[in-house]
């Protein structure tokens, strides 16, 4: 669902409060957090979607990396996962097995075990994981802690929606698609571990609502504004040219329309760049708000670990997003 529609449905729900639910429906963060004891809380999330690439094993692995990401965005470590899937009756069993194996192997890379799952019949395949993780209750990183002066860091380039759309229209350069797939297959495990070593104020992962949509969630829940420097935002190779060529995924227009309510673009920002900033990402990077000294420390840690990281802007007083 689009960000506006989902928010209005959720606003109408009556969700009982519970003393052990630290993060639930009311907080609407990347994942729910349930405190088990003073030292341990469960992190719980689910994510699944239709095939984004042709190769079934790669699709399963990307869907798993994407689902695991919400645990990392909370500062947690994934431990267990259940597969959730829909397949057509006539889909070759070897294809189903490859999708499931891709998810099992990606979860294993994250240190998590796929222990079961559930499938239903549907004409369009869908696959993903329900993931359980652990976090210390004092180390939860939500969308709500950003403060004016914080730096905004992003750990993956944007453009997976534009590039996979170009691929569906047989208009993609093979190396561009390969780079996008490699990015989607990359776990947010390393950046989450590095983030946990500094005093991060807020974080989320950039997925279907695009950078603008997910940045807006940090802005709203932290009651701050964000200033993002468009030229500092990294793009996957080819992404901007596919935007210029009109290879625009369905959700992108919806994201950009929704962003109009809270985003002001400097007149210098090209239409293609606006599309990139709203491009729905699959298995995107972490967007992290950290105070300036911690930002320097985190960038140093990333350089030492070979972890890509980009500083794209800052947290300011006010509301909404300003693109300069
Ligand atoms: Co998320
Ligand atoms: Co999610
Ligand atoms: Co069942």
Order of helices and strands: HEEEHEHEEEHHHEHEHHEHEHEE
Fraction of residues in helix: 25-40%
Question: Which structural class fits the helix and strand makeup?
Answer: alpha+beta
Our count of helices gives: 11
Strand % is 15-25%
Number of domains: 2
User: Uncertain segments of ≥5 residues (pLDDT<50)?
Assistant: none
Mean pLDDT, as a whole number?
96
How many strand units? 13
Rough outline: globular
Radius of gyration: 19 Å
**Biggest β-sheet: count, sense, barrel?**
7 strands, mixed
Tell me what the structure shows.
- This protein has helices at residues 3-11, 56-73, 93-109, 160-168, 174-185, 189-195, 210-222, 239-244, 250-259, 271-278, 292-305; strands spanning 21-23, 32-37, 40-49, 77-87, 113-121, 126-135, 151-154, 202-205, 225-228, 263-265, 286-290, 310-316, 321-323.
- Strand 1 and strand 2 (32-37) form a beta hairpin.
- The radius of gyration is 19 Å and the shape is globular.
- Helix 4 crosses helix 5 (174-185) and helix 7 (210-222) packs parallel to helix 9.
- It folds into two domains: 9-139, 2-Layer Sandwich (60s Ribosomal Protein L30, Chain: A), CATH 3.30.1330.10; 151-323, PurM-like C-terminal domain (Phosphoribosyl-aminoimidazole Synthetase, Chain A, domain 2), CATH 3.90.650.
- It is an alpha+beta fold.
- The mean pLDDT is 96.
- Bound molecules: cobalt (II) ion (CO) (3 copies).
- One cobalt (II) ion binds at residues 45, 47, 70, 207.
């Amino acid at each position: 669902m689009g960000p506006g529609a989902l928010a209005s449905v959720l606003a109408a729900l009556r969700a009982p409060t519970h003393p052990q639910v630290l993060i639930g429906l009311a907080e609407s963060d990347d994942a729910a957090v349930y405190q088990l004891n003073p030292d341990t809380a469960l992190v719980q999330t689910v994510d699944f979607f239709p095939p984004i690439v042709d190769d079934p094993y790669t699709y399963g692995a990307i869907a798993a990396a994407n689902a695991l990401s919400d645990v990392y965005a909370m500062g947690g470590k994934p431990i267990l996962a259940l597969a959730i899937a829909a397949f057509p009756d006539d889909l070759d069993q070897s294809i189903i097995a490859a999708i499931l194996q891709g998810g099992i192997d990606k979860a294993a890379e994250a240190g998590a075990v796929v222990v079961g799952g559930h499938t239903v019949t549907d004409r369009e395949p869908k696959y993903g994981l329900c993931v359980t993780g652990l976090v210390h209750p004092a180390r939860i990183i939500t969308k709500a802690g950003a403060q004016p002066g914080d730096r905004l860091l992003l750990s993956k380039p944007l453009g997976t929606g534009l590039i996979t759309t170009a691929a569906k229209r047989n208009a993609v350069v093979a190396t561009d698609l390969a780079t996008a797939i490699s990015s989607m297959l990359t776990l947010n495990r390393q950046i989450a571990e590095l983030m946990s070593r500094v005093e991060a104020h807020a974080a989320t992962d950039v997925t279907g609502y695009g950078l603008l949509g997910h940045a807006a969630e940090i802005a709203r829940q932290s009651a701050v504004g964000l200033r993002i420097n468009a030229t500092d935002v990294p793009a996957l190779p080819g992404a901007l040219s596919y935007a210029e060529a009109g290879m625009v995924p369905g959700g992108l227009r919806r994201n950009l329309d929704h962003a109009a309510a809270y985003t002001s673009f400097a007149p210098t920002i090209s239409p293609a760049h606006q599309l990139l900033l709203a491009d729905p990402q699959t298995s995107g990077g972490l967007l992290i708000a950290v105070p300036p000294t911690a930002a320097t420390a985190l960038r140093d840690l990333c350089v030492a670990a070979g972890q890509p990281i980009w500083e794209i802007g800052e947290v300011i007083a006010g509301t909404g997003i300003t693109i300069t």
